[in-house]
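Try it yourself: sequence plus nicotinamide-adenine-dinucleotide, in.
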Amino acid sequence: MRDKLYIDGKWIAASGGTFDVVNPATAELIHKAPAGTAADVDKAVRAARRAFDHDGWPALSGAQRAQYLRAIAAGIRARQTELARMEVADNGKPLPEADWDIGDAAGCFDFYAGLAEQLDENPHEAVLLPDDRFVSKVVREPVGVAGAIIPWNYPLLMAAWKVAPALAAGCTMVLKPSELTPLTALELGAIADAAGLPPGVLNIVTGLGPQAGQALIDHAGVDKLAFTGSVPTGSKVMAAAARDIKRISLELGGKSPFIVFDDADIEKAVEWIMFGIFWNQGQVCSATSRVLVQEGVYEPLLARLVEEAAKITIGNGLEEGILLGPLVSEGQQAKVLAAIDAARAAGATVAYGGDRPQGLAAGFFVEPTVLVNPPLESAAWREEIFGPVVCVRSFSTEAEAVERANDSRFGLAAAVMSADDERAERVAAAMRAGIVWINCSQPTFTEAPWGGYKQSGIGRELGRWGLENYLETKQITRYASQDPWGWYIRN
Ligand code: NAD
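Structure, out:
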């Protein structure tokens, strides 16, 4: 585990001392991570500026940048098991999930290597003008220095979603990981270094949000902010960006609905409902935490959901067969338990779970929890709980389901299950959300756009849309006629 910041291709002691990193399964201190401050962020931004403005990173061909990205992907894969175990110790998730995430992170670097190569194939796009005395073309250029701030739920994967497209586009970057899970981001610095990435292209400053994070969003040397996290912090990022018109992309929270019609297969619906809320302990921005079940299948579905929730094996994510690990921190555990208590007080019934599991007192565990009938105006139904807590209500008509599903300030994702493809497509079209799953929930592909409507964010990550985040658009228009323009000077 690393105790220095990665700035300008060197490992540098942080000027803010250290902060504690705790294993959420055991509550043990596992590391003292370097606490970067505004001074460290300034060094990192200056290095990124120099790498962008003077050292030629944006001038490399896409194919040259792709070589670095592929080397980083290979470096991640070479250490996949070690990184996955590190992520379990840091975040708590079960090892097979962490292993999946690390593989996805490597895949993300390979994917954007491919898109970097494609930039060379189409260096410009012609624009047809209505006046044939002019010839115009459009070129895409990197935005500049990007500042990236990420959450703790998918530590290395969230880093990859930002670092890979930024570097592919020709941007340089300062990355600030979450203070709850800083370990694998620092390893990414070591992997990039071993891949020969030029100094200053990628800088990694661990530290606390109000210190290192705030300094990064306020820094005048940053051209673009890419943020993933909560709505309140996203608002701060947007406010900071507004001061000097930084470009921004925001991936924020959600309270995504999952609509099950009565022609759906109950067993499949229960499986996807569980995958939609218990994977990663429900600490997933797109978690389908509001389940709407049509009256005809409501009772049997609920009974099966409770039966299966009770079978989930809970424990330290490093142990074989564990399906639910601890929440990321003591604070997150307290927040989720408080949300369950508030739901009870508001009139919801706890059909399963609702407490700390027996025999796991040391870690920050919460049982898989099924809340039935939280009132429509209750916080449990409206606000993100970010834990293994699913809210279930019934509905009678399609119109009612659509209205309830869309009645949210969030719009990240939605899921619909039905044997009737036409109905599923109709409902998908009616969802005010950036991602809609039909007959499943959560599968995420690097190729497809990711992001939300409404307060779930601005912009899209992943796919070619993720690259767009880091590109400016420039028109170059030439007067191609030999004739004088003849406005002021007429002969
Ligand atoms: P958070 O907003 O508390 O923290 C996110 C990051 O912001 C951390 O790195 C933190 O240090 C930093 N930060 C905190 N204060 C800051 C400040 N004043 N200035 C700059 N940076 C600051 O969120 P979290 O608890 O880490 O993550 C959970 C949230 O993230 C949830 O709401 C979840 O829905 C959201 N999320 C969204 C997506 C998505 O793709 N839409 C993905 C994962 C998580």
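One thing you can check immediately is this: The domain at 5-252+456-476 is CATH 3.40.605.10 (Aldehyde Dehydrogenase; Chain A, domain 1).
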